[in-house]
């Protein structure tokens, strides 16, 4: 009978296929409130590998892009000299345990999803566009 390996924070990273925590960059953004804020977000999410999410800590823009220091096996090639933010990262509870999006209140992976949210949030979202179409 094969002995079950206990997964701990010390050995968890070696069991994580794809190095999930090193596949994106997030940056907190100001809470969008006005149509112009969401227009900017629509422009940003129109670019490849850009997503938005909202959780208990606020709103974030997320760039889906892997770290350039990962080797073919997903190991960090600059581990001893890695940036401070990497050193401070705790894997006590991470994407290995469950996908990050399970904790998101809102999650937008594409333009159409975000646009649908804008139309729901702002009942008159399309009015400006209709006026512009009439004037042409």
Give a verbal description of the structure.
The radius of gyration is 20 Å and the shape is elongated. A 4-stranded antiparallel beta sheet has the order 1-3-2-4. The chain has helices at 12-15, 35-45, 84-88, 111-121, 127-135, and strands at 24-29, 50-55, 58-64, 106-108. It has 136 residues and is an alpha+beta fold. Helices cover 29% and strands 16% of the residues. The chain is built from 5 helices and 4 strands.
Layout of secondary structure:
Elements: H1 12-15, E1 24-29, H2 35-45, E2 50-55, E3 58-64, H3 84-88, E4 106-108, H4 111-121, H5 127-135
Antiparallel strand pairs: 1-3, 2-3, 2-4
Helix pairs in contact: 2-4
Structure at a glance:
By secondary structure, this protein is α+β, with helices and mostly antiparallel strands.
Mean of residue pLDDT? 90
How far is it from the N-terminal to the C-terminal residue, by CA?
75 Å
- The coarse silhouette is elongated
Structural class of the helix and strand makeup?
Answer: alpha+beta
User: What fraction of the residues are assigned to beta strands by DSSP?
Assistant: 15-25%
Rg from Cα: 20 Å
Largest sheet: 4 strands, antiparallel
Secondary structure: helix percent: 25-40%
- Helical segment count: 5
Could you spell the SSE succession in H and E letters? HEHEEHEHH
Low-confidence stretches: none
Tell how many strands the DSSP assignment holds: 4
Strand order of the largest sheet: 1-3-2-4
């Amino acid at each position: 009978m094969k002995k079950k390996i206990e997964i701990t924070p010390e050995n968890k990273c070696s069991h994580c296929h794809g190095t999930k925590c090193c596949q994106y960059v997030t940056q907190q953004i100001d809470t969008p409130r006005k149509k112009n804020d969401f227009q900017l977000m629509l422009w940003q999410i129109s670019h490849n590998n850009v997503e938005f999410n909202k959780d208990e800590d606020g709103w974030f823009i997320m760039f889906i892009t892997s770290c350039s220091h990962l080797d073919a096996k997903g190991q960090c090639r600059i581990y001893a000299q890695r940036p401070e933010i990497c050193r401070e990262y705790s894997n006590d509870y991470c994407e290995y345990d469950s996908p990050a999006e399970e904790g998101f209140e809102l999650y937008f992976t594409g333009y159409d999803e975000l646009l649908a949210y804008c139309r729901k949030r702002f009942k008159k979202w399309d009015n400006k566009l209709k006026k512009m179409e009439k004037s042409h």
